[in-house]
From TrEMBL:
InterPro entries: aa-tRNA-synth_I_cd-bd (IPR045462), aa-tRNA-synth_I_codon-bd_sub2 (IPR020751), aa-tRNA-synth_I_CS (IPR001412), aa_tRNA-synth_I_cd-bd_sf (IPR008925), Glu-tRNA-ligase_bac/mito (IPR004527), Glu/Gln-tRNA-synth (IPR000924), Glu/Gln-tRNA-synth_Ib_cat-dom (IPR020058), GluQ/Sye (IPR049940). Monomer. It is found in: Cytoplasm. The gene is gltX. This is Glutamate--tRNA ligase. GO terms for cellular component: cytosol. PROSITE patterns: AA_TRNA_LIGASE_I. Its EC number is 6.1.1.17. Catalyzes the attachment of glutamate to tRNA(Glu) in a two-step reaction: glutamate is first activated by ATP to form Glu-AMP and then transferred to the acceptor end of tRNA(Glu).
Length: 470
């Protein structure tokens, strides 16, 4: 007797190309990606472009670029739902042949009249077609839709890995249209046919699709197909507990990229939106893939919190190696429409990163902190820096320069030289810090004076102090 092998996990992300990659869609894609990648399964991409009026190539490109930036690689080619319309129609006709669907010749006026009468009599307005059990011999030579025969009594139970068992009374289900009178398939049919043909084993999607699952299960049953594992995840809400919308701020993934959040931080933050692994807040991609499971997804809506995103982003910047961080900075500059760094600037930034990357939350903040090493002489101090370079400060800087030309270029020696100078002028080193920052960076908010001097080197440090003293 051979043991039955569990089929490999296959998940999918199926966005509609009518706009950017929404932050909620990005999280759905991430959950599907993590679940598949953590089980050596497949993660597939399907573009649900059946709404030809609203679907655009630009939106498809934006979705693909958003996924590329987030690092959510998919297996095989992206599938176009619209290109599979013939296959969807074929299944509708097969259900018709099996007796699980029927031709409905009811006009829009007849359906409207039925609903109006039902409302007046206090009955359910779900349309009950008179053609459901009609003899095919009585069919007119007229346009028709193909409707699926939904059960009229009993209940349909959705066994959901997140929501638990969800029961829907069958008298709440209509005989949904699968094929329109012009021969085009409906979304509800196309989704099921595509998921089956793609071999999808787990459907992980927003809980706004939960009711759809009950209707879609009828197609699986009519075709004797295996029903996938359902996992309907709660939507993302804003800080006020209401559904995430434009008034809460950025909605598209590309906006977060342009704000300078690293992709690694976005993956971490989105994974924590509605899913948890103990008390772990900050983790690597490898840990997320190992830990992610459907049982860790909560039933309640997650709230988007910029402070938490900033905190996670700062932790990721601090723990990222220099080469990767420089690459992330270049990506941010491209997304923000700013000039990229030269090879020399990349080298300078990489050298400075160990001293400057802690404490920053975003890549623009990192670049701001690195200003001293990315700028070149002659520097123009900003307003506060110019004010710090008064006549007294300039004289002290001029006095300092010869001492630095002979000092050993190590932190302890530089601290000794500067403290001795402060003592000679009967002041504390803190009083010298502002003019030194102004001279070295053209600003008064900078990294440590000693870090800057060590990174700039003797020659550049002395040159900047000489410029400022003059």
């Amino acid at each position: 007797m051979t043991s039955q092998q569990t089929p490999p996990v296959v998940t999918r992300f199926a966005p509609s190309p009518t706009g950017y990659l929404h932050i909620g869609g990005a999280r759905t894609a991430l959950f599907n990606w993590l679940y598949a990648r953590g089980r050596s399964g497949k993660f597939l991409l399907r573009i649900e472009d059946t709404d030809r009026a609203r679907s655009t190539p630009e939106a498809t490109a934006a979705i693909l670029e958003g996924m590329r930036w987030l690092g959510l690689d998919h297996d095989g080619e992206a599938i176009s739902q619209a290109a599979r319309a013939d296959r969807h129609a074929e299944v509708a006709h097969e259900m018709l042949a099996r007796g699980h669907a029927y031709k409905c010749f009811a006009s829009q006026d007849e359906i409207a009249a039925f609903r109006e009468a039902a409302r007046a009599e206090g009955r359910s307005t779900l349309f009950q077609s008179p053609w459901r059990d009609a003899d095919p011999a009585d069919h007119p030579d007229a346009p028709f839709v193909i409707r699926l025969k939904a059960p009229r009594d009993g209940a349909t139970v959705i066994a959901d890995r997140v929501q638990g068992d969800v029961t829907i009374r069958n008298d709440q289900l209509d005989d949904m249209i699968c094929l329109r009178s012009d021969g085009t398939p409906t979304y509800m049919l196309a989704v099921v046919v595509d998921d089956h043909d793609m071999g999808v084993t787990h459907v992980i999607r927003g809980d706004d699709h939960l009711n759809n699952a009950a209707r879609q299960m009828l197609v699986y049953q009519a075709m004797d197909w295996d029903v996938p594992v359902w996992a309907h995840i709660p939507l993302i809400h804003g800080p006020d507990g209401k559904k995430l919308s434009k008034r809460h701020g950025a909605l598209g993934v590309e906006e977060y990229r342009a704000m300078g959040y690293p992709a690694t931080a976005m993956r971490n933050y989105l994974a924590r939106l509605g899913w948890s692994h103990g008390d772990d807040e900050v983790f690597t991609d490898a840990q997320a893939r190992d830990w992610f499971d459907l049982d860790g997804i909560g039933k309640g809506a997650a709230r988007f919190d910029f402070k938490k995103l900033d905190n996670i982003s700062g932790k990721h910047i601090a723990m990222t190696d220099e080469a990767t961080l420089v690459s992330q900075v270049q990506d941010y500059l491209a997304a923000a429409g700013r000039p990229s760094l030269t090879e020399a600037e990349c080298g300078a930034l990489a050298r400075a990163l160990p001293a400057i990357k802690s404490g920053v939350k975003t890549l623009p903040q990192l670049l701001d902190k690195a200003h001293f090493i990315l700028t070149s002489r002659p520097m123009v101090p900003d307003e506060k820096a110019a004010a710090a370079l008064d006549d007294v400060s300039r004289r002290i800087l001029k006095e300092l320069t010869p001492h630095l030309q002979t000092a050993s270029w190590v932190r302890e020696e530089l601290e000794s030289v500067l403290n001795a100078l402060a003592e000679a002028h009967d002041t504390k080193f803190g009083k010298l810090a502002a003019p030194l920052r102004a001279a070295l960076a053209g600003r008064v908010a900078t990294p440590s004076v000693f870090d800057m001097m060590l990174l700039l080197g003797r020659e550049e440090t002395v040159a900047r102090l000489t410029d400022a003293a003059a």
